[in-house]
Design goal:
Family (chains A, B): Belongs to the acyl-CoA dehydrogenase family.
Organism (chains A, B): Sulfitobacter aestuarii
Radius of gyration of chain A: 24 Å
InterPro entries (chains A, B): Acyl-CoA_dh-like_C_dom, Acyl-CoA_Oxase/DH_mid-dom, Acyl-CoA_Oxase/DH_mid-dom_sf, AcylCo_DH-like_C, AcylCo_DH/oxidase_C, AcylCoA_DH/ox_N, AcylCoA_DH/ox_N_sf, AcylCoA_DH/oxidase_NM_dom_sf
Number of strands of chain A: 11
Largest interface: A-B, 97 and 97 residues
Cofactor (chains A, B): FAD
Number of helices of chain A: 20
Keywords (chains A, B): FAD, Flavoprotein, Oxidoreductase
Oligomer: homodimer
Strand content of chain A: 5-15%
Chain lengths: ~600, ~600
């Protein structure tokens, strides 16, 4: 059975040596001293590796079961959920007034990586609840907050997001679910929603569905969509549970992975709903959940890549097969371990350099979210809104590829379910799809975020890269050659691509959109390149100051060099493709495909 | 449920317009007139789309079931197998004297693509039989041939390959299964084999296992391994079946995909075996099967990519979602079909340009195999032995990626099993692993094939590319710019990579092996680039001669241009990685992963 070890040392390195969180000006960050975060991360690490990880295979094998309208989660899930609740983990970064611990989002993110790595399907129950609670926090009335948040922050009640219908996913303007206003100010919600994660299950007293629907008589299309709170059980004035509401589970979807999470068809049959936020502004309210959810999904890409990598490394060290081409390294054994072979190392280094770079990228993004939300920093808000589709799209595409590479190291043993490597790829696959398929992320990036506010945020990103290079160049020729020069070249490629879009996208927007996925990927590489340069600098400084474990820092530098040499130059290929424009992409008539 | 349409027109184009098979000198090719091959391909197309494709999902859902030592195949498999046998398909390219039709291998390959695309798990039962029969044909005594081949060519008896043991897959020198010589010239075989495809099932009267084992007292390691024929039921002098042999199925593996094929743990407990070929030369005999199997597995990569692509195209044309950025294309409908969106097109063009290029590559490889085996052409034999790891490794890595892209077009519907897109990725995944994991293919290519016979074969490949460019340059500036120049640049990258290995691989072989997977991929791209240039030339000539369907040929040219612009330039990135050598790959101590 696969195992999971929480990457506490690496998270601490990113938080303190690289991002230097406790020195940041963001409100609440002054409390993030290294010993405090270490205590939290170690405790979370223990919980995730000892309680959640062993249930990962169980969830995959058993799946969820629907019987007489009741969804049964896999064996052990309910007890583990109580364990998680008792530790107060769901409310880690939620406001104290609703029972949370008010820690910054960056800590929630660091802990969230561990939860997702240990058991993605399980963690989604609390993850969706967190997203729904965030939307109520941002858009609810005080009465709504008081009614729902304390129970959701504790996960006594869980939450869901209801967007998709059979005929519409990305294009929510086609939505048919309707809401009829009632005299008491509530609405009757009718319609069918599909792909509802955690839609129905047996681990919570109540489930709070956030549902997009169209108020009768409102505008056509996306501008007529509103968001509603639809509780599974009505909540009485005193907070106790009342009647069952008119929402039922129709079926559970049979999926490629995340079997431990119940993905439901939900039927709303005149269910009572309460408007959340303003009429016809449902998309705005929903996006509060979606942006957070997208960063969370990007994190899942990293998380699955990391746990798959950890197991692949263990296997590569233990499995004896063949001899090193440069001479036996285990001469007394029947063969050498797989890890002696250069092609195995290449695959492992791809994974290692991705996961460590991605971890820094996500945590950096989380500090920007904190700076925006806690510190009111508009520049940080603009920057993270630009980076969100990159975090989601790039990290889940690459994260999936990394799980496939980890599986490959096992040979035939990776293909049978017994070793658990197949599950990592099957679970990771969904992250490329949900919360906006990655093509939609690329569209959001190129079609919307790049030009937002006159291109201010992308300019800020380039200034940030240039500033880092300028501040650190000329002090160490090796560092310049290994890190700053490749970063500069890659960033230049990214700028050239942006320039191409500006010059060619106006006369024909297809010229921009045909390169959108390539742009998202090259942007991701530049971000990881920046992160590696920052990490390398931190490790160099730590080594010079004789601080920390020299092996850790030497490995960090070596892994960073690998990324700069082997991965970052992909930007040139992406630029090459982008610069070819839309002609070859759009040449065929649909009939000739 | 997904559908499958056999690509008869495209296969005919490759066979006749591009490869011009009926004009080739290879014995038997003179019979391959266009109307003959069309009749065969149409008949096979009908069988595969109407009989085999509908059973694909059935096989995935039901899987195989082991009860009291008997393996039950999924509903409908047995009837379909009888159908296939009645049509004589298993013996299509087998010798007439054993009941086959003696068609060239290239026809077997064209038909094989359809079978694999329609139902890979089902087709493996006859595929393994074909491989085992080929080994007996090449290495068996006349008596062995007479005993086994007629029944195997008809698939009344099926065959298996038994290599892997729990502790050894790639490194077969570690093998423990043993063979004890008996006085009657037979051997007693004892040991356990795992991952045995079609190892036990209910569709054949007898199963002929080819088993690698070590004759007691023989040399250590790989040089002491011999190959044995171990029938499930002993065969009497008169050809009728006798006693059950000492081979039993231990269990069926639970796998990520190809559920319709029974992947068995096989236990040999003093089973009677007959030496096939020479003592201690088992690997040589087994490689007869393996080389054929590797080309066949490369074909599976193409086949799964094609069927996934076909369904993705249908979905992209039907699913209405969003509007074209350049103005509504379906103004009377609620939204435009997915196929109007540039990023959807990019993904579809990636798939289309891959599958069509891969089809030509495989069929070209098959003509080389025919030239070698039927025509005794040593140059063709050398060339195809060089290309075999590229066919296997590149086409299965890329083929898998293409199934993932096809699945992505379905959004959430791609992740649920109902639409069948998940199965294509899960089935395609195995092709990167079995018959030598793709890392081993890369090792074979760079460590063995490249330098074989003094590098003669790779030089021949480059001469072939150069010759094609020289013969066709300077006649049409557009063709030169669109096809010949990109091909020349990519081929130059490949040569530079080979040069790097020569200059740096001798002093440190890790410098070559660290770039092996990149080299395999760039080699694959150059091969597909060559195929696209050849196809484009054929289509250009057909258009000029007003021959065939102009839409078909215009689409071919447009798809080729896409490949040359968007895919072929990947060679530069691979060269870049290769030229960085082994330093960053091998820098870390194993303990620091």
């Amino acid at each position: 059975m696969p195992s999971y070890t929480a990457p506490v040392e690496d998270l601490q390195f990113v938080l303190h040596d690289v991002l230097k969180v406790s020195e940041a000006q963001t409100p609440g960050y002054d409390e993030l001293e290294a010993d405090i975060t270490a205590a939290i991360l170690e405790e979370a690490g223990k919980l995730t590796s000892e309680v959640l990880a062993p249930l990962n295979v169980v969830g995959d094998k058993e799946g969820c079961r629907l019987e007489n309208g009741v969804v049964h989660t896999p064996s052990g899930f309910k007890a583990a959920f109580e364990h998680v609740k008792a530790g107060g983990w769901p409310g880690l970064d939620m406001p104290e007034q609703y029972g949370g611990q008010n820690m910054p989002y960056v800590i929630g993110t660091a802990v969230g990586e561990m939860f997702s790595a240990a058991n993605q399907a399980f963690t989604m129950y609390q993850g969706l609840t967190h997203g729904a609670a965030s939307a109520i926090l941002a858009h609810g009335t005080q009465a709504q907050k008081d009614t729902y948040l304390p129970k959701m922050v504790s996960c006594d009640w869980t939450g869901t997001m209801n967007l998709t219908e059979p005929h519409c996913g990305t294009d929510l303007g086609l939505m048919r679910s309707k809401a009829v206003p009632q005299e008491d100010g509530s609405y009757r919600i009718t319609g069918q929603k599909i792909f509802i994660s955690s839609g129905e299950h047996d681990m919570a007293e109540n489930i709070i569905h956030l549902v997009l629907a169209r108020i009768e008589g409102g505008p056509e299309g996306i501008k007529g969509v509103s968001l509603f709170i639809v509780p599974k059980f009505m909540v009485k004035e005193d907070g106790s549970l009342g009647d069952r509401n008119g929402v039922t589970v129709g079926s559970i979807e049979e999926k490629m992975g995340i079997h431990g999470n119940s993905t439901c068809v939900m039927n709303y049959d005149g269910a009572t709903g309460f408007l959340l936020g303003q009429e016809h502004k449902g998309m705005r309210a929903m996006f509060t959940m979606m942006n957070e959810a997208r960063v969370g999904v990007g994190m899942q890409g990293l998380a699955q890549a990391d746990v798959a990598y950890q197991n692949a490394v263990n296997y590569a060290k233990e499995r004896l097969q063949g001899r090193a081409v440069t001479g036996a390294e285990n001469p007394d054994g029947p063969a050498d371990p797989l890890i002696v072979h250069p092609d195995i190392r290449r695959a492992l280094m791809d994974q290692k350099s991705f996961t460590e770079g991605a971890r820094a990228f996500i945590l950096w993004g989380a500090t920007l979210i904190d700076a925006a939300h806690r510190g009111g920093d508009d520049a940080a808000d603009g920057l993270v809104s630009l980076l969100t589709p990159v975090i989601k799209g790039f990290l889940t595409d690459q994260g999936y590829d990394m799980t496939v590479k980890a599986q490959q190291i096992y040979g035939g043993h990776g293909y049978i379910e017994e070793w658990g490597m197949s599950q990592f790829t099957r679970d990771a696959r969904i992250a490329m799809i949900y919360e906006g398929a990655n093509g939609v992320q690329a569209l959001d990036l190129v079609g919307r975020k790049l030009a937002a506010d006159g291109g201010k945020h992308v300019m800020a990103f380039f200034d940030l890269v240039k500033g880092f290079i300028k501040d650190n160049a000329g002090q160490d020729p090796e560092f310049d050659a290994d890190f700053l020069e490749p970063l500069k070249a890659a960033s230049k490629d990214l700028q050239s691509a942006g320039m191409y879009f500006m010059q060619n996208g106006v006369k024909n927007p297809n010229n921009a959109l045909a390169g959108s996925t390539d742009f998202m990927h090259m942007f991701g590489h530049v971000c990881l390149g920046l992160m590696w340069a920052r990490m390398a600098l931190a490790s160099k400084q730590a080594l010079a100051a004789d601080k920390g474990d020299p092996d850790f820092h030497q490995s960090k530098l070596a892994t960073g060099r690998y990324y700069m040499v082997r991965q970052l130059p992909a930007t040139a290929l992406h630029l090459n493709r982008i610069s070819s424009g839309a002609d070859t992409v759009m040449a065929l008539d649909a009939a000739n495909f």
